[in-house]
Every structure is written in C-alpha cells, then in structure tokens.
Design a protein that fits this description.
The chain is built from 4 helices and 4 strands, in the order βαβαβαβα. By secondary structure, the chain is an alpha/beta fold. The protein has one domain: STAS domain (Transcription Regulator spoIIAA), CATH 3.30.750.24. A 4-stranded parallel beta sheet has the order 1-2-3-4. Helix 1 runs parallel beside helix 2. It is globular, with a radius of gyration of 12 Å. The two termini are 13 Å apart.
Length: 99
C-alpha cells in the first residue's frame, strides 16, 4: 500500500507533476494506492483527468486507487462530473484502509 499526500491547487501546471508522480508510483503496481487530498483547495479538469488516468492504470493491473479527505469544494467537482460514482472516496485514511 502507498499513501500519497497532495496539497495546494491542482491545475493545468501542477497536474503535469502529479501525473509524473502517479505514473512512477503506479509503475510499482501497489495493491492499494491512497491519495490524501485534505490539503487540496481546488482542482480543475486537468487534475480530474490525471486522477482518471491513474485509476484506469491501477485497475489494469488489479490495484485499487482510493481518494480520501476531499474538501467540499473539490468534492462538488467530482459530483458534477459524476466521478464520485466511479472513484472510491473516503472521509479519511482509516476508512480507506478498512474499506
């Protein structure tokens, strides 16, 4: 299991670095990848696309990608795009690890 801590705004510029980090981490094929987003205040569509790509890669090798600690503002973006139905989203890391 791997836990990644994200912080700040995830926009077009930051999503490039996020993508690189996620691809490197998922290249090791962890069974469970938990992305803690409690310090993320904003995410645009490029950030969403990066997370979708990571989830697809994880599923391809049989892994799980779980998101935790999403703020109300960021969660609304997931809800509008209906990605809250696709991702495994938990309030905290303890829930993600037991779920």
């Amino acid at each position: 299991m791997v836990v990644l801590e994200l912080s700040g705004d995830i926009d077009l510029h930051r999503s490039v670095d996020l993508r690189s980090s996620l691809l490197e981490t998922l290249g090791e094929q962890p069974a469970v990848t938990v992305i803690n987003m409690r310090e993320v205040g904003f995410m645009d569509s490029s950030g969403l696309a990066t997370l979708v790509e990571a989830m697809q890669l994880s599923r391809r090798y049989g892994g799980q990608l779980k998101l935790v600690g999403i703020s109300r503002r960021v969660r609304s973006i997931f809800e509008i795009s209906r990605l809250d139905k696709i991702f495994q989203i938990y309030d905290n890391e303890a829930e993600a690890l037991s779920g």
